[in-house]
Amino acid sequence: MNELAPHTPVLLAETLAALEITPGEHHIDGTYGAGGYSRGIAAAGARVVAFDRDPDAIAAGNARPIAGVTLVEARFSEMASHVDAPVDGVALDIGVSSMQLDQAERGFSFQSDGPLDMRMQRAGESAADFLNAADESEIADVIYRYGDEPKSRRIARAIVAARPLSTTGELARAVRRATGWREGDKKDPATRTFQAVRIHINQELDELENGLAAAEQILKPGGRLAVVTFHSLEDRLVKRFLKERSGAMPAASRHLPQTSDARAATFEAVVKPVRASAAELARNPRARSATLRSARRTAAPAWAPARKVKP
């Protein structure tokens, strides 16, 4: 295994402020990565249980233990099964980490050629498995839904024509041919397709939805939730969850059947979205697309347990 590349946690100070940590508290870091959030939470005096489904991140964390932090190799949506008592805070940093992107053998990026993998968990269906077996319409739907790619059908047709695909370079070249991209053009069109396939392979939006429900289950009254997202699909999901759970969803039309329910709000004190400062952007360009949303748990019962996500 290659040495993991350095990773700078995004919106760290703002996330720690949102968690309002008091020494002796018990917090969850749902996405350990290189340990940036866990280290900050532990330094504030809290005990931390940190989750990561990537075995490389867990191995690196175990090699450099942080006092007060316990590592668990599992999805963050499974946090409720690994924590006995209610907790004071949950932090989630969603999406792919810079360490994963920088390791060519993981297949998350086309910046360096590598196997077409993209699996965070290093198990299950790989990107190559999906792209070489799925029909053209399914590939097009994934690229459109998760990549917001208007040329998804043309790209899917090119992917099928180029099969079998085995490397990130082969996929990137197929996308570029389909879209007419040329060296020197402003943005590489492969970016959207890689994002879409990665989200699909790792079931990232289902995982986020289930992770939010799991946090709702295990946070004690007054507990804080802080979630950092990196693209609009994630952010919209978090925004909707907090609006729904805080009772801030708009009322249904009187011309439509009543669909809202009267369950008590499970979150309050929902904070306006926070984005990186100019100083952080200068230090860490990855922070450009980051959004932090946070809220405080009420004493109301959780609405529903997380749904099971297939491995």
Number of domains: 2
Main sheet characteristics: 8 strands, mixed
- How many alpha or pi helices? 13
CATH superfamily of the largest domain: Vaccinia Virus protein VP39
Secondary-structure content class: alpha/beta
| Helix-strand string | HEHEHEHEHHHHHHHEHEEHE
Q: How far do the termini sit from each other?
A: 23 Å
Mean model confidence by pLDDT: 91
What's the arrangement of secondary structure elements?
Blueprint: H1 12-19, E1 26-29, H2 36-43, E2 47-52, H3 55-63, E3 69-73, H4 79-82, E4 87-93, H5 98-102, H6 127-133, H7 136-147, H8 152-162, H9 168-179, H10 190-202, H11 204-218, E5 219-229, H12 232-245, E6 267-268, E7 274-275, H13 278-283, E8 291-297
Parallel strand pairs: 1-2, 1-4, 2-3, 4-5
Antiparallel strand pairs: 5-8, 6-8, 7-8
Helix pairs in contact: 1-2, 7-8, 7-10, 8-9, 9-10, 11-12
